[in-house]
From TrEMBL:
GO terms for molecular function: mechanosensitive monoatomic ion channel activity. Keywords: Cell membrane, Ion channel, Ion transport, Membrane, Transmembrane, Transmembrane helix, Transport. Signal peptide: none annotated. It is a multi-pass membrane protein. It is found in: Membrane. GO terms for cellular component: membrane. The keyword RNA-binding does not apply. This is Large conductance mechanosensitive channel protein MscL. The gene is mscL. The chain crosses the membrane at residues 21-45, 81-102.
Amino acid sequence: MSIIKEFKEFAMKGSLIEISVAFIMGAAFGKVTTAFIDGVIMPIVGELTTGVDFKAMKYVLREAQYDTTGKIISPENAIQYGNFITIFIDFILVAFVMFLLIKMTNRFKAGDDKAGE
């Protein structure tokens, strides 16, 4: 069997195609979720925490250095912990939604098993 024919059989297997579609859908779902978190959830959280912008939260290790003309000699070095908080909230929400989807899928599968009896 030639390598090309073997590769074609491998690539056309249903499970590989399903995994590819799931990967693409997962990437799209991640973008939608991030947009939802950044555009809807974080502004609400910011208002509940008296207007805190989490993406601006940082701990500066070293201030930026400027020359006499105002040109940057060395940039600021900071720990961006606010961005981490935003991404962590994003992760928790995605994990929760995935948990709900799996729970719902398992419930439907259990219903199908009982219907076949």
